[in-house]
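User: I'm preparing a small set of examples for a lab meeting where we compare how different chains pack in three dimensions. I only have the primary sequence for this one, and I'd like the structure in token form so I can line it up with the others. Please keep the answer compact; I'll paste it straight into my notes.
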Amino acid sequence: MKFTDGFWHVRPGVDAQYAQEAYDIEAEDYRRLVVSAPTKVIERRGDTLNRALLTVTLSSPLDGVIGVRIENHRGDAPHQGFELVGAVEGLGAAKADDDGGVLTAGALTARIGRGFPWNLTFEAAGRTLTSSGHKSVGRMCLAPDAPVTTEPAGVAGVTATGRAPSSTYLHAQLSLGVGELVYGLGERFGPLVKNGQTVDIWNADGGTSSEQSYKNVPFYLTNRGYGVFVNHPDHVSFEVGSEAVERVQFSVPGETLEYFVIHGPTPADILERYTRLTGRPAQVPAWSYGLWLSTSFTTDYDEETVAHFVNGMAERDLPLSVFHFDCFWMREFRWTDFEWDARVFPDPEGMLERLHGKGLRVSVWLNPYIGQRSALFDEAAEAGYLLRREDGTVWQWDLWQAGMGLVDFTNPDATAWFQDKVRTLLGQGVDAIKTDFGERIPLGVRWHDGTPAETMHNLYPQLYNRAVFDVLEEVRGEGEAVLFARSATAGGQQMPVHWGGDNSSSFESMAETLRGGLSLALSGFGYWSHDIGGFEGSPDPAVFKRWVAFGLLSSHSRLHGSTSYRVPWAFDTGEEAEGQSAVEVTRTFARLKSSLMPYLYAAGLQAHTTGTPLMRPMQLAFPEDPAVAYLDRQYMLGPDLLVAPVFSAEGEVEYYLPSGTWTHLLTGEVVEGGVWRHETHGFDSLPLWVREGAVLVTGSKDDRPDYDYLDDPLVTVYPRAFDESGENEVAVRVVTPSASEGVFRVSRMPSGYRVTGPAGHAFRARVAGGGDVRSEGGRVDLADQPDPTRAGR
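Assistant: Understood. Below is the structure token output for the 793-residue chain.
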């Protein structure tokens, strides 16, 4: 939201009242600083009259995190922020003297100078991370005709009330240094680097080809060792080096603004603290990492169709883990009524049992809307479970399901009622739930608990997903619950998995989908998926096959479309070269993913325990390498695998390998990094590199994701100079789906490596490029291989 007209002027109709000085500073309870910031320099007693006084309070909810709350009038309801599940009381050390005030939280220090001009700095390790300087804290009072952008894109389409924009906003600005780049702000499909962009935090169902986003998160991090979390569930407008090119500005309607500065110093450290504050991603079951196949959206299907798909996958030796029933498992016009359409599914319990008998899990589609034709509509309306307008009538519209109402999850009774319906589904044999929608949440309505409509718009999917996720955990057990959710905001990472929403069937949409996933990963989300082949339209075979490779080297992998099926054989003519058909490509990468499960499952556990996402943007994995700053067409899958999807039919791909020795996982080629590479790949290949020093444990099974990873695994050592790095041992922990675990230790020996495995477990080991050696007595000695910098050239 832009309030100014260039550097010197404000826009017509805008009265800008800036914090001019820190007039007085108090250290309350030695734990927080309270600063009085008048909007005029106080030179005489009369200057204290007839003007706003902003109160700025600094406190700490975690070591390395400092919160800043800016308030003007406090007489309304208290500020409603996100649930800060990791916040701790009584942290921070504050002091004030004649020069100003200091608040220390671990390695992070906030320093406020007394007097004019306003100057608040955030420091760590002896340097300034960012600062809030002159004209950076402002109260903006708007005339009704002020020509500023006062609402985000999409608001007009959901209000239907003609609501006037707010007349008062608070904004804060934090400095950007030379070369400082901003990432995050949720799942955004445009450029990964947000500098120069206006970003509105407002959930919308806009597809992947627009500036709108299903998952808006008011959190960003930079390449200068810190992140910023704006603690407002309602509309937050960010100007990222756009209105003021030297600063990031964020503004909110009303009289209170709260944000947190989160120290790193590394991006992984920032995400660790941010997810500790807002919630870690839950652990997801091993079976969820396998391939999901959907009925697709508007295609015709019944149990015979489903059986044809499932049997077709088995006949073609294609590993399948989950079968998903999309919307039309329920009868048209009646979504959501939780009833299987008896015309096409006369025996749902028997069908689900038959699918389980084939070793599959089952997912079904839900949304939080109740169509008027549903038998549940009157029940919910009479009980007060549906959202109501300000006049007390049930809010309804026809965009999606005719006459639909919206479940009011702020009503505990409505939540319990909805959860009982979910329990019934799980009792029938459903294993996972796709929680679709949750973005089209109207304004001009009255929520049961009194939450303002503007606040609930972004917060709604949190309540919706939580209601379903809690039942899944209750019935299936902790670590066995998994959603496929589309909408979210800050804290939504606690209820995985999330997928990228409605993309189209093109290479351009494939690339924008990846940008969205990388941006979401830099916003605290540990797991992510997308519709392989694109949702809208029908992909040509080249798009489908390239997307299959990308999708099966993502956190979670789902074949799903809108108007056409996504079974692999639908994209083959029978004239493809050997290894290049869609069936063969799907088989290759599905089996590869299953074999990688010991590694992927461990990376998922790391997402759960530390907040480091499974799919890692290059900026997160290599923060010291300036060459990765703008990369958005490649990523690290876990700590050691570099993936560069191919976005062309011809197989041409350009990507960057950071410095070090890299080994291609599929071919064994060994090269030196620190270079850009231009290659051409067949459909059964893509750049997939293992970094030096990795110890990669792969499984003995390649037909399913949930097996015993300690049953005869292969341990591959990718050499590096242990002596040069100062390390002489690497330990790799393997956890199985049954929660048993073992540790493989690789030690540098005078002429090679010694691999020691967990007691009682047979395994094989090798140095990359060499042959397998089976363990004897739980230990393997491996000779050095030829110089890896020359091998394969």
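A couple of notes for your slides: Residues 453-476 form the longest helix (24 residues). The two ends are 54 Å apart (CA to CA).

User: Perfect, thanks.
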